Amino acid sequence: MCALLLCAPLFAVGAENDPITIEADHATISEKVGVSTYSGNVVLTQGEIKINADSVIVHHENGALTHVTAVGKPVKYYQQGETRELDIYGEANTMEYFAMEERLLLLDSAKLTQGGNVFSGNRIDYDTQREVVTAAVSESGEERVHITIQPKTLQPLNKSSDQEPPAKSVE
């Protein structure tokens, strides 16, 4: 098991206040039960976040989102960052978001990429409050966790061309 800190949160600050827009080929909404089911080329958008899936189930209580399950081959997740290097891409066959815990769970062939840094494994759990990623192997232990972290580029020393070399002494 491996826990790492990402440079930027998976869910954009303030995204929870943005409306959720869902497009699908079919929708069944039950306000009484608090479950909405969407199927067929589902696109869920909230702020800078976009999820593409075959099906999505949204659970809500008293108008508030509690849990989202997305299934696909694979489900694709994208979040636009402040810069292109901070854009986040994720994919897995199943993704779950637990709103009360502010936690994203990627299951089955899970992969999360940000600026060349790649986390992959059977299960990736992201705690958005603490900004901690935990990647784990499959239950059978056959598939290992793979992590690639790119080195940070060093800024060149600020050499000023206005400076003159020290004067040579003449005797």
How would you describe this structure to a colleague?
There is one protein chain. The termini are far apart. The radius of gyration is 22 Å and the shape is globular. It contains no helices and eleven strands. The chain has about 170 residues and is mostly beta strands. Strand 9 and strand 10 form a beta hairpin. Strands 1, 2, 3, 4, 5, 6, 7, 8, 9, 10 and 11 form an eleven-stranded antiparallel β-sheet that branches. The protein has strands at about 1-5, 20-25, 25-30, 35-45, 50-60, 65-80, 90-100, 105-115, 115-125, 130-135, 145-150. It has a single domain, classed as lipopolysaccharide transport protein A fold (Sandwich).
Describe the structure using short key phrases.
single chain, 171 residues, mainly beta, lipopolysaccharide transport protein A fold, disordered N terminus
By DSSP, the count of extended strands is: 11
User: What are the segments in which pLDDT stays under 50 over at least 5 consecutive residues?
Assistant: 1-13
| Total count of helical runs of at least 4 residues | 0
User: How much of the sequence is in beta strands?
Assistant: over 45%
Number of domain modules: 1
CATH topology: lipopolysaccharide transport protein A fold
Oligomer: single chain
CATH architecture title: Sandwich
Structural class of the secondary structure composition? Answer: mainly beta
The averaged pLDDT comes out at: 82
**The CATH homology group name:** Lipopolysaccharide (LPS) transport protein A like domain
CATH class: Mainly Beta
**CA-CA gap between termini:** 70 Å
| Helix-strand pattern | EEEEEEEEEEE
Radius of gyration equals 22 Å
Give a quick account of the main beta sheet: strands, pairing sense, barrel closure: 11 strands, antiparallel
The general outline is globular
Helix content: under 10%
